[in-house]
Design goal:
This protein has four helices and ten strands. By secondary structure, it is an alpha+beta fold. The N and C termini lie far apart (51 Å).
């Protein structure tokens, strides 16, 4: 009986530990992060492989001709993203997508979820991203008109 209780407690502790994510700090972010993937509502641009794929829900709703056409048009976008990166220096981040945009950022937490809030110097606009750091990958998630967008970066 006691052995069973210890087994249950051990499994519970392992499950809780697996769910607990490391808190992202300013120190963790410092340096250059190259974009490796972009997922917009289930359409995934894999910059490492140079490929466009579809999550199952999206792919199941598209015929092969549409998938092929969509892949071809997205390959140009993929090529443009291959040189995209973010560089964190102190509390400043320079985002290199089509142009280089400089922003000041803060890390905030709400209901146990961390966010990076970026205020762009040029026009004062603000972007906020849910932030996760997993095995040397930086994941930034946001939502636009109900579509989840995820940027994945890898430390250079």
């Amino acid at each position: 009986m006691i052995k069973n209780i210890f087994t249950v407690v051990a499994l519970f502790v392992m499950a809780v530990g697996a769910q607990a994510q490391k808190k992202v700090t300013e120190k963790d972010l410092q340096g250059r992060w190259n974009m490796t993937a972009f997922n917009m509502g289930g359409i995934i641009l894999d910059l490492k492989k140079g490929d466009v794929t579809f999550e199952e829900e999206i792919g199941a709703n598209l015929d092969e001709a549409t998938k092929t056409s969509l892949k071809q048009s997205l390959m140009e976008t993929l090529e443009g993203f291959k040189t995209s990166y973010m560089e964190f220096k102190g509390k400043e981040v320079v985002v290199h997508l089509e142009t280089a945009d400089t922003a000041d950022y803060t890390i905030e937490e709400e209901d146990g979820i961390q966010y990076i809030v970026m205020t762009y110097r040029e026009d004062g606009s603000v972007d906020d991203f849910q932030v996760e750091l997993n095995a040397k990958e930086l994941h930034l998630l946001t939502e636009d008109d109900g579509t989840v967008i995820e940027f994945v970066y890898e430390k250079k």
